[in-house]
Amino acid sequence: MAIARTLLPALLSLTLTGVPAVLPDPNAAAVVPYDGQTDRETALFSVKSTNNAAAQAFTVSGTQLSRVSVYLGSGAATGTVTAQVRRVRTDAGSVIASKTLDLADLGGAGAGWVEFPVSAAVTADATYYLFVQATTAESKPIAWYGTRQSVPGSLTSWNYDRTYWGGWHADASRLAFHVNPTGSARCGETEPCYVPTSALAARTSGLLTNRVTTEAVLPSFAVGASYVDGSNVLRLPSGRWRYLPDGASASTVVAADDPGALAQVDESRAWLAAGQVPGTTAAQRAGAQRALLSMRALLKPGGAFAAGWSPAWQYSWPRDGAFAAVAFAATGHDEEAYRILGYDARTQRADGTWEARTKLDGSGPPDARKWQLDGNGWVPWATWQWYRAAPPDGRDERLRALYPMVRKAADYAAQSLGPDGLPPASPDYWELDTATTNIGTAAPLLAGLNASADLAARLGMGEDAERWGDAARRLSAGIADAFAPLGYQRTVDGKHGRDSAVAFMAPPFNAAPPGLGGALDSTYRALLLPNGGVSPGDDPDFSWGSYAWTASTSFFALAWSGTGEQERAGRVLDWVLSKRNGLGELPETVNGAGLPSSVAPLGWTDSLVVLTALALQGSPQPTPPSRAGTAPSIGN
């Protein structure tokens, strides 16, 4: 069957004479009003003028219309869609309510339920017609969806196709619509509002949590929604709230004044108030607040920190957890920081290393992905940062509980160094093997060894401090000999281009060595993309495409904030914050069109934004004291 083309202008303006105000319908004898049905698996009828339109007969039990909704799909990004309520299907003069929406205001091309606010008095149990027609200069389709299955008690759906039918045609299919939708019939509750195609570049858009269970907000249910300020309770387009009640495994929709939801909002705000929300501008503070709440939602009771909340991200990486622990500690959330470090201690392997990632219950890795040596730097560095920020009362005892983990990690890192002072090749944050040592492993190990040596000294472990300090000096010298002449490129063989991990040589990881400023500048320029962000690297053997990575971009903001270039750091941070989605969440990547993509939020980016905002307001994280001042010759 042809999909309708559009309605003739002459037919739109035709007024029939001798027709009663409300036409009888052969199906109108239904006792129960027919005011909507939700099945919409098929694009039934084109509604593009001037050759196409569609209409749906309906009845209501009340006497007032407030809104109507239809399920539309549009390949066109521009144009308008008009919904009318008519007494007579074919008579534009019988319109009692009309509303026109702009496709651009809806977000362009997309699909979903579109609500049209209307106001009209109606007669209960009388038959009216919901008429829909679109206009666009584009050749792409705009269709009203529905079902070809039988719908008990339904009234007739009408297809206007001037070319195929020569006019109106009563069809056995049934269009998807609502008249006066309320409660769960409102879009954004059980059915999605109109979702722009551009929003579907992301896998997730936000998070709900009760601090035990986490639930992703999908892009299709984020449109038109917003968080209740200072919480992970979602305000829906209908005005109602969605949240995860305490003890529940799935979210529920409640009235805006629901006591359980209000209690959760109050608890979240109290948690934020117990620490600090950094930032020198309103945008920075808003971004940092949402980042902290999202990090809290990604943290599980046992201390596992999920990278994101989509299946491939629902694991705990030591690297991501380390940054989250530091951001929690730096903003006054000591318990959350220490919980992550305790999880690291429990999941450390017997040889002192960590799996690349673990299941969130700590039961082990989800697959055979190769382990990554950089964790032996990130976790001790995070432990040192936690210690520096922790309340003084009792922190030495708490550190002693973590010290066996630090010792095993630092000993493995020190023993891994070769005659040239460098660690072996290992996958790093790219999670790809390299044939020779990479800066994404060497720089974190240097930070971790310096941090471990200082922690050992603070606990009176002189031999440990000396051993790790010596290893840090050897590694620092090896980096200076092998990486510095290359501008801290990805690998020591110089065959794999620039790497955003150059920023790991800057505070708050390592004291910036001479010449690092120039390397940061040249690397940033080399990795800068047209969308304004940077890619992780420009390895000629591996392409990141047109996608900017918010974490890699944030590396530079944090590095510049720690090396005296606050204005530059602020500009980069502002770009990252400008790519938050409609819920204010920070995505993992930004596509070539400048739109959030992959998962949102990403916990690693959240942590980096918080740390950078702290540095820009004058509260930078300290850097582990360097042992490089008396670096021995390589091989000694």
* Helix content range: 25-40%
Radius of gyration: 30 Å
**Main sheet properties:** 8 strands, antiparallel
Shape: elongated
**Alpha-carbon distance between the termini?**
83 Å
Low-confidence stretches: 1-24, 26-30, 630-636
Percent strand equals 15-25%
Care to count the β-strands?
Answer: 23
Q: Overall pLDDT, averaged?
A: 93
**Total number of helices:** 14
Structural class: alpha+beta
Write up what this structure looks like.
The longest helix is centred in the middle third of the chain and has 22 residues, at 395-416. The strands form five sheets. Strands 1, 2, 4, 7, 9, 12, 13 and 14 form an eight-stranded antiparallel sheet that branches. Strand 15 (206-209) and strand 16 form a beta hairpin. Helix 6 (334-347) runs antiparallel to helix 7 (375-389). Residues 1-24, 26-30 and 630-636 have low confidence and may be disordered. The protein is built from 14 helices and 23 strands. The radius of gyration is 30 Å and the shape is elongated. It has helices at 9-13, 103-106, 259-273, 282-298, 318-330, 334-347, 375-389, 395-416, 439-458, 462-482, 516-527, 550-562, 566-578, 603-616, and strands at 36-37, 42-46, 52-58, 64-74, 80-86, 95-102, 110-121, 128-135, 142-147, 157-161, 167-171, 174-175, 177-179, 195-196, 206-209, 214-217, 226-227, 234-235, 241-243, 252-254, 548-549, 589-590, 596-597.
Offer a quick outline of the entry.
This protein is α+β, with helices and mostly antiparallel strands and about 625 residues long. It is about 30% helix and about 15% strand.
